Amino acid sequence: MEDFVKRWPITPLQKGIMTAVLELGALVGALFAGYFADKYSRRYSIIFACIIFSIGSTFQALAQNLFHLFLGRAIGGIGVGALSMLSPLYMAEISPPEVRGSLLALEQLSIVLGVVFGFWTGFITRSIPGPMSWRIPLGVQIIPGIILGLGCLILPPSPRWLVLKGRDADALKSLARLRMRTQEESESDSLLQIELLEMKVETELIQKTFAMDGDKSGFKTELRAWGRLFSKEYRDRTLVGVLIMFFQQWSGINALLYYGPTLVQSIGLEGDTVSLLVSGGIGIVQFFAVIPAIVYIDKIGRKPLMRLGSSVMSASHMSIALLVLLFQDDWASHRYAAWIAVGGIYTFTAAYGVSFGPIGWVLPSEVFPLSMRSKGVALSTASNWANNFLIGLLTPVIISKSPSATFVTFSAACFLAYLWATYSVPETANVSLEEMDEVFNSAAGKEDSHIKAQIEEDLGLKALIEDLANDR
C-alpha cells in the first residue's frame, strides 16, 4: 500500500522478518497452550488466547513505527499459535468419531474464509489516502477475536477434560448437551453411558500406567510427559503430527498467501490490480475446495485424499517451474504461458484445499491418547508454526534469487509428502479416540490391554455393552 511503503520502505529480508515474526510468536503460543489447556480447561485457555490476540492486533493497528508493528505481530502471533492448537483439540474431544473429521475440517474452512475476508479487506482499502488504508485491515481482525472469546463462554466444556479432572457428573452433563440429550435422558441412555465409561476407562488406564512417583503436577513429571512423545510407544504418532504440519507448510500454500502478488509478478503478470486480483483468487479457490473435503473426509478417508492432493500439488508446482524457466526472459511475448502458470497455481490450491489443508488439523487431534493429546497437538502445531516461520522468512529472498527454484522446492516437498502419505500414515477415519492404539499397533496398547480389560470390568463397561447387545 502506497502510504505504508513510503512510511516504512523495507528490503525483501525485512519483509520476510515482518511476516515471520508472527509465526515465531505462534510457535511460542502453540508450545505453551498445552499446559494451560490441561490446567485451566480448553475453553478458558481459548478465551485467554483471544485476549492476547486482541492486544497484539491493537498494537498493529495503532503502530507508530516498525517496532510497534513487529511487537504487535509477535504478541498477536502468540494468540494465533495458542488458538491453532486449542481449537482442534477442543473439537476433537467434543465430537463423535463418525463426524470428527468433518468437524475438524470446518476449522480449515474457517481459516480459508478468514484469509479471503482479510485479503479482500486489504484490497478494498488499498486506495484510501493516508494510513487508514492499512490500519483498517489490521484493526478489523480484533472483531473475530472478541466474538470467539465471548462465544466460548456459552460453549460446553470438554467432557474428556472433565473426566480427566475426576468430574464425572459434570462430564455427563456436558456430553448430554453435546449429543442433544436432556438431563433425564442422559441417566438412562445406554449409548451415552458407554461413551462416558470409555472416557473413564482411558483416564484410569493413563493414571495407572503413567503416574510417576505419585506427583501429577511436578516439573519432573511434566518434563517426562513431554519426553514420552519421543518414546517408542508414541514415536509413530508424534511423527505423524509433526510431519503432517511440515508437509502442509512446505507444500507452498502460505508462500502463495503471504507473497501472492510477488509470486504472480514473478511469472510475468504486471500491474498491482492484476496481481492482487489473481493472488486474491487463491483464497477463493481454496475456500471452495475445502467444502468437498468436509463432506468426504470421513467417507473416503485421510490417506486417499492426501495421496491425491500431494501428487497433483507436486505436478502443478513443477509445471509452473518449467514455464518460468522457459519464458521468464520474455513474458511479454508469451502471455498465454503466464496465464497457464496461474492455472497451475489455482490447481495446486484446489488440491491443497481437499487434502493437506484440512487433514493437517485433523490428524494431530486424532492420534494421541487423552493424557498426551494436548502436548501432542501442541508439538504438532509448533511444527506448523516453525515451518511457517521459515516459509515466511525465506520465500521473498528465494523468489528474488530464482522464482523457478522456488516452485521446484515446493514440488519436491509435495512429492515427498506423497511417499510419506502412501507408506507411513495409517488410516484413522471412523476410529474412535479410545481405539487409536490398535491403529498404531503401539506397544503401550498391547502392554496395557490386560489393565484396560480389568478397568472395563471394574467400571461395568463390559456388562453394559453386553446388556445393550442382548437387548438388541
Descriptive overview:
- The structure is a single chain.
- The chain is an all-alpha fold.
- The protein has two domains: 2-157 and 232-423, MFS general substrate transporter like domains (Growth Hormone, Chain: A, Up-down Bundle), CATH 1.20.1250.20; 442-472, no CATH class.
- The protein has 23 helices and no strands.
- The chain has helices at residues 2-7, 12-40, 42-61, 66-94, 97-125, 132-140, 142-151, 159-164, 168-178, 183-188, 190-210, 219-228, 235-250, 253-266, 272-300, 302-327, 335-353, 356-367, 370-401, 403-423, 436-440, 443-459, 461-471.
- The model has no long low-confidence stretch (mean pLDDT 84).
Distance between the termini: 67 Å
CATH class of the largest domain: Mainly Alpha
Q: Can you say what the CATH homologous superfamily of the largest domain is?
A: MFS general substrate transporter like domains
Main sheet: strands, sense, barrel: none
Overall helicity: over 70%
Q: Outline, from the CA principal axes?
A: globular
**Proportion of residues in extended strands:** under 5%
Low-confidence stretches: none
Whole-number average pLDDT?
84
CATH topology of the largest domain: Growth Hormone, Chain: A
* Estimated radius of gyration: 24 Å
Tally of discrete structural domains:
2
Helix and strand sequence:
HHHHHHHHHHHHHHHHHHHHHHH
The counted number of beta strands is 0
Architecture per CATH nomenclature, i.e. the level-2 architecture of the largest domain: Up-down Bundle
Number of DSSP helices? Answer: 23
What structural class do you assign from the helix and strand content? mainly alpha
